[in-house]
């Protein structure tokens, strides 16, 4: 028998230039959802 677990993840999408602010928020414990960085906003 195969069983599957379905999870719904809530995320906070952030632009690449806000990654340092997101990290600081993580250190402070001010994070409700997982951060996902939008790589389309990266400049090279």
UniProtKB/TrEMBL annotation:
It comes from the Bacteria. This is Uncharacterized protein. It comes from Paracoccus benzoatiresistens.
């Amino acid at each position: 028998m195969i069983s599957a677990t379905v999870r719904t993840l809530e995320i906070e999408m952030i632009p690449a230039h806000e990654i340092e602010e997101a990290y600081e928020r993580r250190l402070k414990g001010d994070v409700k959802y997982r951060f996902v960085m939008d790589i389309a906003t990266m400049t090279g």
